[in-house]
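Exercise (ungraded).
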Amino acid sequence: MMWSWIPSNWSLIWQLTWENAKLGVLPALYGLVISLPLGVIAARWRWFYPPTLTVINILYAVPSLALFIALIPAFGLTDTTVIIALTVFSLCVILPNVVAGLRAVPAAVTQAATAMGYGPLRRLVTVELPLAVPVILAGFRVGVVASISLASVGQLIGVSSLGYLFIDGLQRSFPTEIYVGLVLVIALALACDLIIVAVRRALTPWAAS
Amino acid sequence: MITFVEVTKRYQDGTVAVDALNLEVPAGQTMVLVGPSGCGKTTTLRMINRLVEPTQGAIFLDGTDIKDRAPAHLRRGIGYVIQQSGLFPHRTVQDNIATVPLLNGWPRKKARDRATELLTLVGLDQDLARRYPHQLSGGQQQRVGVARALAADPPVLLMDEPFSAVDPVVRASLQDQLLSLQAELRKTIVLVTHDIEEAIKVGDLVALYRPHGTLAQVAPPEQLLAAPADDYVAGFVGFDRGIRRLSFVTTDGLVLDASPVLPADATVAKALAAGQPWICVTDAERRPAGWVATVTLAAAPGDTPLGQVKTEPVGHAFTFGTDSLRAALDAAVLSPAGQAVGVDGDGRVLGVATFDQLRAAIQAADTRAVDSRAGDSAEARRR
Amino acid sequence: MSFFSWAWDWVTTDANWHGSGSIPQQLVAYLGYCALPLLIAALIGVPAGVAIGHRGGKRAVVVINTANAWRAIPTLGLLILLAVFLGFSPLTWLLPLVVLAVPPILVNAYEGVAAVDPSVKDAARGMGMTPWQQVTRVEIPNALPLILVGLRTAAIFVVATATIAAYIGLGGLGRFIIDGLASDQYGPVAGGALLVVILAVLVLALFAGLSRLVIPAGLRKQAKTE
């Protein structure tokens, strides 16, 4: 383990970490944004959910590498390709949680809100979604962590991320790089995880946690 | 029988749920633990089958310290019924009931036959056997819960607010079922409830708790009503305990007067001659048909049969000997004549009792020894 | 879409079905690469999740959070690390896939048991079931729907990710993808990916059938999550 390698390559490491963070958080955010309306529809019209979920599960099954490649003709060897692919994957994790979270809101609460004169949209935004936040954020957490992890595979098509350290380390038989890469990916994922937990606490002061 | 000796339950944060409890539950009787929320009654119950372990003291079951028996083995010999029934959703009704026999190694057929027997015992239809719990109503689920607890014929039955989660009509029916089961099976039952009425209705002995884990009074229900130990007990039991106590007094000491009772074919003239303010008209089978005020008869022709005169409803009659004095008093209050109609077991009128006669019976009851738990007063208590 | 035409042309080329490194060969190898990690993960995750769910309490939450943290480990990175130190040992591809599959299985098994109605668990205990009997006769049967969800999720993860085994020179469907990439041939890349997707669909169908078979009738009626 060559410790001196770290400070001398600091700017590279930092840049790759930042790239990986973007490639991890952005897809999860886009996934959340797409999952919310889909989830609302699925929670309301139950027949919509199983087919949607099946399609997403199948898309998830496409090996990340293959999906990246499939998108190259359309989007080129850029960040966009990886981000789109990872967004599709995060849908698989976040959508079920949006649906489960909305379904878990007690019927008594929604009925009380309606009886008090809340219109459906207002009820959704001010009552149901806030109550579904813990479950939705649980899914979002997994989405972010998984995306940060999967982003490293993007390196195989030349999109830079901390995966670069794995592959370069393998090619040069230089374990130090691999260790650093591993540790940083894990640390990055855990840091994002903690941030999201803090956000959840801030958004749900009523929850006992 | 079950004996608690100086039993205390103290939790890690300092709360004392049960405080130096000494209690004896006689074999073959129903002991009801009743009290306000958080008084320790449920904790007491759960210490009997070791779901909760006491911090101090000992509990004896038929002379053996329960600590000397392995918990799972102990519990197989104790029936356990809880408020939400806790039926296993993944098993059919009959397999739920057969749980403990199967645990004890009975062959499947024997266990299922036993389940069938018990379904009948708790008043349920055979075709419920293959259904799943979620297909049953709340009352039906509770009955299955009781059947399940009785499956291995345990000598002891623990019931934790078993009827609190159902509506009053179903609750009354389940309580009645419990009473008739107990009359037949004579188990040692410990039942927890927060409802003093339920305690009085089903208990042979009532243990009333104070708010923090100590007992205020342990007595048969009649005595609790007649002689509460202090103001707390009196307050808990309720303000109309005098009248409610009358549920435990039979009517066989009541003097009935047959002179205001006339059949429908008797004439108005005869009614007027009887010299009563009200006449109780009976039908061809001597069943009460209605009351008529004699003043309204003055206008009618003397030879009109009473059956054709407009009468007022009787309200309800009380069954002489089996119904309680409280039922008789209630009948008198409801009657337009202010007199209670007493009938025999077949509903035929024996006579009527005025308020004076009822008052005399009430005062006589005070000086008489309180009835012990025998068949008659058991029936009487239910009205 | 040209992706499908590449895939279709390649899959329908007869030559690809014969000889060494053929589709059937790699398919069978791939099934092995998927099934073994899944089995091991299930043997670890289900008992652990059930035990933690049965016990409950604060410790349970800590353990579950740890399991979620496991997901942060990048499978590719772990694979490469093991390749450098262990070379071609089976552990090299097995360990990363097991690490990938355990969290969904464990977390779902835990949640399945934790979600069993407390009064049902109390009744089971109060009736005289030993802890083993409570777990096997009451808690697991009631947790089965969620346990199966966890297994299914893990299966999809593994089927999708086992392709990376090819990156360190092993076989399986990933071979087509990696080799195709290296030689700029999109046919095997698309074809390999298509085969993986078909396999995933079959796995989904398998689980749907399995759940119908295994989940007790009493639970199915209560419209549970799928």
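Further reading is listed at the end of the chapter. For now, observe: The first helix of chain C runs from residue 2 to 11. Confidence is low (pLDDT under 50) at residues 221-226 of chain C.
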